[in-house]
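Entry: Mechanosensitive ion channel
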Amino acid sequence: MNSFLRFRNAVVILIIVVLVLLGCLITTEISVQAQSTPTDAVTVDGRKLFEVTEAGQFSAENRAADANLILREAVRSPDSVKVEIVESNQLPVILVNNRHLLTVTQQDTPTGRTKDEQAKIWVQRITEAVQQGQEERRLSYFWRAILLIVLSVFGAIALHLLLGWVWRYWSRRLVPREANHPETGAQPKGIELFLQLTLVVVRSLLWIGITIYITDLFPFTREWSRRIANILLMSLTSPVITIGESSYSVINIIILISLFFGVLAIAGTLTNLLRSRVLRITNVSRGVQESIAVATHYSLIFIGTVLLLQIWGLDISSLAILASVFGVAIGFGLQGVAKELVSGFVITFERAIAVGDFVEIGEFIGTVERLNARSTYIRTLDDIVVIVPNSRLLDTEVVNWNHQSSASRLVLPVRVAYEVNINTIRSALLKVARENHDVLKKPTPLVWFQGYGEDFLNFQLLVWISKPRKQFQIKSDLYFQIDEILRQENIHIPFPQRSLNLRSGSLPLELSPKLENSLSQLSESMIALLKSQLQKDNSNGANNQAAKTQDEK
């Protein structure tokens, strides 16, 4: 499994590096094309045949527009088209149905080829393109194209489903099962998110390719799709931002942003390799490892960004104005974010709080899971992750149970009755501390006699533990053991007692004459009622006895 993970990390790094290099090559190609001689394309039904340059007073756009108009009329004609070459002023001239199409100049000819050879090549391309255009306007071709569309759509649907199956297969191979298990509640891993994103991208490219293929089957849709594509390409490649002496288009900016995310991915991958392959085998603490990893991560990002801008050809000094604007933005709108970032760096290098420390921040108690630039992740005892801003760790009091020492003291109050021998309770509590495996032997446990209470003797058991995160569990286990040994030793825990002393034989209460008269009448009525009920019961008993005697006779 470790070899597989190493192979996976190597493949990810290789893919990112290849994407970065491709981005640089694409940018260079776009820059070269932007700096080359202006040309325009001669097309037939949206198919590019060749490019022409300016000639004398005619620009490349004018020459291409005139040629495209003549070819459009020729391809729509049902008659055969005659394409030939004639010589005029020692230059080859291409005629289409005896109409002047183009004059081949030296600027149109690449190095190592004559004007006549270039003219013959263009004539052959024009002839083939016109014949193909006339063929595509016949009814037989239309029905063949419809059949190809149906087959291509069904093939795309099948490939769409196949891609989903392949991606699910590799997702199960590359992502641990815990991340896919619905009962564990684990969040998807980065590799799974990457696979999902690539699946969406590949499926989108598939349907874009099918759409381009379908529109390329018919002359009118092909021409309009090429026009739309040219408009989009022009809008993406036209300069929109000028920094110093360099101008940048939308596609340049998109590629630069993509390469920057590539730098972030490479920095993150290298940092993870450093954390898992190098720092893990050292004997330094987890907090030191995390500090080194964070410093390495941001250093790689800074170095990679500077190198990327230099390769891009961007003058760093020209960013002074942008940096000043960014500083003003931080001062007004981003001061909260800047405060969190600075706090994160202070915490990282000061190391007052490190990953793995058991801390108490206000109402939150838990273990520090991660230290980010802006926030800190704390996993509470309820296994809930709390995201705390870094500035709060510097502005408020933080109890760090692991700072400089992992030993922490627990205090357990114990109250017993007055009749208990204090030496007996002391020995019992120390025995409990010695028998618990989570209690440290050094420092030794202590029992303090705190004093006399109203109805109890007050003791405290002091123990030291090395796992502050388990302090509540350890405390509960100790109390269970204390209760068991107190029952064994017949040591009683006193109940709260209250004494009431009366100074005279009567309560100091006075009743009004009217209330006394009412109470005496009520008591007399109750007595009379009880007497009548008793007489009635006696009479019924005598009658029943007489009836029983009569029956016996």
